[in-house]
Amino acid sequence: MSAATPTTATRPTASQVAASVAADLTAASIASLAISPFITAIDVSIFTSASSGMTMKQAVMHEAKQMVRQPMKYFKSASFAWVWGLYAATYAAANLSSTFLPMLDLDRKTQDNTKFAITALVNVPACVLKDRHFTRAFSGGTGIIRPIRVPTYTLYAARDSLTVFSSFVLPPIISQMLQDRTGMEAKYAKFSAQILSPVSMQVIAAPLQSWGADIYMRPDVSGGDRARMVAARYAGTTALRMSRKLPAFGVGGVINTEMRAAAACARLD
Prior knowledge:
It is built from 8 helices and no strands. By secondary structure, it is mainly alpha-helical. The protein has one domain: Mitochondrial carrier fold (Alpha/alpha barrel). It is globular and about 60 Å long. The protein starts with 13 loop residues before the first helix and ends with a helix.
């Protein structure tokens, strides 16, 4: 169905737009702050495990202890700042797209595709830069920083594009399917889709993460050796990435959406 063409009567005023933008940025910042501690710990654990020989469980336990013992140092770290900045920027891009795209004469499908493109253009480069930091900081090397090769960047970008698609484009589609095919109430269908879509996508995204990181950490091994390493770590990496996406685009997405909805209701009162 095509979206209605904005008219003078329905077009928001400048003050309404400013209030919406403020709400969009506030929701993005708070949602990111709520999830960043957990995601930082998971990211550090994934990279540390891949480079140090520790099991995933050992890496997670080590990182959890660091967070508890030195919380201020942890929250002031570059790793935490990268994670918070990444998700704040991603939520903000999605929120601002949702605010401004309905003002244009675009049908629903075009709005969805444009929102995906804008969000991906923000998320994918930011996530690749974030993972460049993690790859170098937790590679377990001798301190010599090697350049990150194009295949690693490409795999990270593919991984992040899948995640953005499953987090911002698929949930409304899945939600509508759940309502149409199962009779599920809209609020439950929306919540279920927002949680399940990005989490399930990690079945595909996790090996891209492992392969890209291993190209940097072990640049000279054969493709067969690399495939065996990815296969050996598949279950653990997938489980960690699923647990990571649950707060990132599941819980965080719900917080972000509900804060925007609450702000919209407040503006109507």
